[in-house]
Amino acid sequence: MKVSEDVTVNEGSNLTLTCLASGRPDPSITWRLLNPSAEPLDGEEYLDVIGIVRNQAGRYECKASNDVATPDVKYVNVVVNYPPTIKKTQSSETPVGRVGTLQCDATAVPTPEFEWYRDEKRLSNNQNQNIQILGTTTVLMIANVTEEDYGNYTCVASNRLGAQNASLFLYRPGSGRDISAAARPTPSLCVLLGGIACLLYKC
């Protein structure tokens, strides 16, 4: 029995896996992707995957069986590369003099590299700030926060297939950094809208 070698492909590529077996009577060949559900796949000697996506990565099982011999089973491991997607960010409400922590989580294959920026300046480790990278998570720690540290920070996750960035904020307690607040009308606008409605409906 002969099967394809383990393979790595980029997301969106077409993939053909081969499983060749002989016997008397001729064996039937079935394929399964063992994660997560191990449901049968539509293929025999050749399994075609068109436009492969990340959740089709994993261990593929080829099984050759007839009514005479014990079934023969072989496996092919498929890795799917894809560009980073930032899944989660955590801004920080931190008083002056305390430690501010900003966190950025991404998913990617190969594992992403991370960079942090303040405005257009790339940040690096120094006495006041420390950048930690733990697999697909990066943390920016700012010791002894000052007024000058408050503001917008950018996390960039990248690999050879692409990059994605996200904005995070270090802000002082009580500053009302409520993103949803920006969508609410101001009191003066509410008064104006109420006046217009009053004119239209002759209240």
- Structural class, from secondary structure content? mainly beta
- List segments where confidence is low: pLDDT < 50 over at least 5 consecutive residues: 178-203
- Note the gap between the termini: 86 Å
Strand content: over 45%
- State the helix count: 1
Provide the residue-averaged pLDDT: 87
User: Which range best describes the helical content: under 10%, 10-25%, 25-40%, 40-55%, 55-70% or over 70%?
Assistant: under 10%
Written as H for each helix and E for each strand, in order along the chain, the element string is EEEEEEEEEEEEEEEEH
Query: Mind describing the biggest β-sheet?
Result: 8 strands, mixed
Query: Any idea what the shape is?
Result: rod-shaped
Number of strands: 16
Which radius of gyration do the C-alpha atoms yield? 28 Å
List the helices and strands and how they pair.
Blueprint: E1 2-3, E2 7-10, E3 15-20, E4 28-33, E5 40-41, E6 46-49, E7 58-65, E8 72-90, E9 92-93, E10 100-109, E11 113-118, E12 121-122, E13 129-134, E14 137-142, E15 151-159, E16 162-171, H1 187-201
Parallel strand pairs: 2-8, 9-16
Antiparallel strand pairs: 1-3, 3-6, 4-5, 4-7, 7-8, 8-10, 10-14, 11-12, 11-15, 13-14, 15-16
Q: Any overview of this molecule?
A:
By secondary structure, the protein is mainly β. It is 7% helix and 50% strand. It is built from one helix and 16 strands. The protein has one helix spanning 187-201; strands at 2-3, 7-10, 15-20, 28-33, 40-41, 46-49, 58-65, 72-90, 92-93, 100-109, 113-118, 121-122, 129-134, 137-142, 151-159, 162-171. A hairpin with a 2-residue loop joins strand 11 (113-118) and strand 12. The N and C termini lie far apart (86 Å).
